[in-house]
Design goal:
The protein has 314 residues and is an alpha/beta fold. The protein folds into two domains: 111 residues, Rossmann fold, CATH 3.40.50.720; 179 residues, NAD(P)-binding Rossmann-like Domain (Rossmann fold, 3-Layer(aba) Sandwich), CATH 3.40.50.720. It is built from ten helices and twelve strands.
């Protein structure tokens, strides 16, 4: 069996991959030209979508592993028509993304954007008001790996944690109540803080819009650490302008990169990080662990982890 590693996501762990599976030919092309030369007869390809030719060059592929959790930019129609199994990296980024969610939430609650602006201006300004989390309710949109890790952290603030998910049967010691995503309105009306952890699919795209923002509690905080496509940015700005929302923490936005003239940059009630939620020194090792395990499963005919439902898009 031949595996082509098409991106740098696990480059530091190639020796570990080869040691775990010495019967497998592992090829790591150094250039786009070499990728095109070697990938045609590969049965398994790691993260080919960023290479010129992408999936089309993977003529013999039966299984493709992505380096990220989201697959909204992958050619899912082609993957499906060719009968290729697609697996993603869901769970690999859960810890750093949850940490980022907490950093954004606390930054918004404690007005750190305003404080840093004053810091840079050498201005010792009076308190503009802060938002205390203890005893409040946090609502999580999707309870996968990221959602559960966020819940774990929020519990340390003595918050009530509720969530919605396509699987309302999910249970966790960190989540007090789970309902189906069809009951999103219930969650929004209950929550002082809303944290979005869901994938961007046709069903979830722009799920946060003027209607859903209006359903959120007066003075609540909105945090998005999953995909910017879930939020309609003009509607978020309108909800902030009206004072309906206390503030927003965004690691992702609808159009990335965010333009220099975008009005979000100028807001003291919005804290922005440039889609770095998954960044971690441990990320590549976790990704390699997942792939090495999945290679073993693939060889033995066992079910793979993180198989993408091509119809649902996650």
């Amino acid at each position: 069996m031949k595996i082509v590693i098409a991106s740098e996501g696990i480059s530091a762990s190639i020796d570990r991959l080869r040691s775990a599976h010495p019967d497998v030919e592992v090829v790591v092309p150094d250039s786009d030209a070499e990728f095109a030369e070697v990938v045609g007869d590969a049965e398994v390809v790691f993260d080919p979508f960023r290479r010129p030719g992408g999936l089309a060059a993977c003529k013999s592929a039966k299984w493709v592993q992505t380096g990220g959790a989201g697959v909204e930019k992958a050619p899912l129609g082609e993957v499906k028509s060719r009968g290729i199994t697609l697996t993603n990296a869901a769970g690999v980024h859960a810890i750093p993304v949850a940490d980022t969610a907490m950093a954004l939430l606390l930054g918004v609650a404690r007005r750190l954007n305003w404080a840093v602006r004053n810091h840079l201006a050498h201005c010792w300004a009076p308190d503009r008001g802060t938002y205390e989390l203890v005893g409040k309710t946090a609502g999580l949109i999707a309870l996968g790996g990221i959602g559960i890790e966020v819940a774990r952290r929020l519990k340390g603030f003595q918050m009530r944690i509720i969530g919605v998910d396509v699987d309302p049967g999910i249970t966790s010691e960190f989540v007090d109540e789970v309902r189906h995503v069809d009951e999103l309105g219930w969650l929004l009306g209950q929550s002082d803080v809303v944290v979005v952890c869901a994938p961007d699919t046709p069903a979830t795209h722009h799920m946060f819009n003027s209607t859903t923002f209006a359903q959120m509690k007066q003075g609540s905080i909105f945090v998005n650490v999953s995909r910017g496509g879930l939020t309609r940015t003009p509607d978020l700005i309108a909800a902030l302008d009206s004072g309906h929302l206390w503030g927003a923490g965004l690691d992702v936005v609808d159009e990335e990169p965010l333009g220099q003239g975008d009005p979000l940059w100028r807001r003291e009630d919005v804290l922005i990080t440039p889609h770095i939620g998954g960044a971690s020194t441990a990320r590549d090792e976790r990704l390699a662990d997942l792939f090495i395990d999945n290679v073993g499963r693939y060889k033995s005919g066992r079910p793979l982890r993180n198989v993408v439902d091509l119809g649902e898009g996650y």
